[in-house]
Amino acid sequence: MTDNTIIRFEGVTKQYDDDPAVLDSVSFEIERGKFYTLLGPSGCGKTTILRLIAGFTEASQGEIYFNGKMINHVPANERQVNTVFQDYALFPHLNVFENVAFGLRIKKMKNAQIQQKVKEELKFVNLEGYETREIKEMSGGQRQRVAIARAIVNEPEVILLDEPLSALDLKLRTEMQYELRELQRRLGITFIFVTHDQEEALAMSDEIFVLNKGKIQQSGTPTDIYDEPINRFVADFIGESNIVPGKMIQDFKVEFVGKQFECVDRGFNPNESVEIVIRPEDLEITKKDQGKLKVRVDSQLFRGVHYEICCYDEAGNEWLVHSTKKAVVGDEIGLYFDPEAIHVMRFGETEEEFDKRLEAYNEDGHAN
Ligand SMILES: Nc1ncnc2c1ncn2[C@@H]1O[C@H](COP(=O)(O)OP(=O)(O)OP(=O)(O)O)[C@@H](O)[C@H]1O
């Protein structure tokens, strides 16, 4: 734990009745002032983590700390957190000003002070002049900003955001991603953001926790997680991946599709079975005899920036390639990749073991 830790989960389990645990002994730390994202498929437990932090539900086991103090039994209204919900949960019968002022009125703040604070926050989220507007007269993006103003007016130490952008269309969603990130930087407070959209998570976060089935699969910066996924689930969930079975012959030598390749990984047992990941953008198309692998082009789609080319090797593995070069469906072509493009994953490795192996590897001067 560092001095900068604001929230800490220690072996937190959440279980309803006799059902399987929704969260299964989850431990993590959240540092002050950073943008965190909880990322994972529907039902993996993201919202449950937010609800536990906010105090809307209690842990079945384990401890939750806020600023070093155990808060398992502290009621929601005494916690220094505010939540922005997916549907914003604005009050439709109150105008913009009163929606933002709501929390301050409950705290019985003086009217003059409320006027000043609400005005300030509305300016902060670019809604100056909208004070008397009805909520139904506001667009999706504007409602979003009202919800954020309502959360920050209480000066919480942490803001929890539960899929706040999911109701917006793609263009507005992208705009709001920039806006939210910028807002977090200006405010300097901790944001914990929930999404099942991996691109959104990669674009916005300082740190990502990837969840599946009630467990944190991997935590790290967007580049850590993209470049060094810990297992098949993470590799598949974060971006598109080619994943094939392989064998680690010895340090820096791996075998897959019946061939041996130079790689940059080490620390495995000789001939250990592994899984290999190569990202589609790390594969280059060559003439059929000039690549490291021979494949047949099965289909091709133009995606604007690149072609998405689907190929199969002789063993029947699918290879997805992102290339600015066009291929011909039915042709045999070669695929070239650098040793650094090969990422080797160990079966059943825990995050701790994975981090240790990576650390040892980086200390040896093989940092990438
Ligand atoms: N009150 C409850 N009683 C029983 N089961 C619940 C309750 N609340 C949530 N669950 C279950 O807990 C699991 C995790 O739910 P949670 O809302 O945390 O998932 P999520 O990752 O946020 O999913 P989504 O992206 O769909 O919102 C789900 O299987 C859900 O059905």
Protein model, in words:
With 368 residues, this protein is α+β, with helices and mostly antiparallel strands. The protein has three domains: 34-47 and 75-228, Rossmann fold (3-Layer(aba) Sandwich); 240-283 and 337-367, Beta Barrel (OB fold (Dihydrolipoamide Acetyltransferase, E2P)), CATH 2.40.50; 284-335, OB fold (Dihydrolipoamide Acetyltransferase, E2P) (Beta Barrel). It has nine helices and 20 strands. Strands 6-7-8-3-9-10 form a six-stranded mixed β-sheet, sandwiched between helices. Strands 13-12-11-14-20 form a five-stranded antiparallel β-sheet. A hairpin with a 4-residue loop joins strand 16 (293-302) and strand 17 (307-313). Helix 2 (96-106) packs parallel to helix 4 and helix 3 packs across helix 4. The protein is globular and about 75 Å long. Bound molecules: adenosine-5'-triphosphate (ATP). Adenosine-5'-triphosphate binds at residues 16, 22, 40, 42-48, 196. Residues 7-238 form the ABC transporter domain. It comes from Heyndrickxia sporothermodurans.
Short description:
By secondary structure, the protein is an alpha+beta fold. The chain is 27% helix and 32% strand. It starts with a strand and ends with a helix.
Distance between the terminal alpha carbons, to the nearest Å?
27 Å
Task: Tell me the radius of gyration.
Answer: 24 Å
Mean pLDDT: 91
Total count of strands: 20
CATH architecture of the largest domain: 3-Layer(aba) Sandwich
Number of domain modules: 3
Q: Strands of the biggest beta sheet: in what spatial order?
A: 6-7-8-3-9-10
CATH class of the largest domain: Alpha Beta
EC number: 7.6.2.11
Function: Part of the ABC transporter complex PotABCD involved in spermidine/putrescine import. Responsible for energy coupling to the transport system.
Enzyme class: translocase
InterPro entries: AAA+_ATPase, ABC_SmlMolc_Importer, ABC_transporter-like_ATP-bd, ABC_transporter-like_CS, Mo/tungstate-bd_C_term_dom, P-loop_NTPase, PotA-like, PotA_ATP-bd
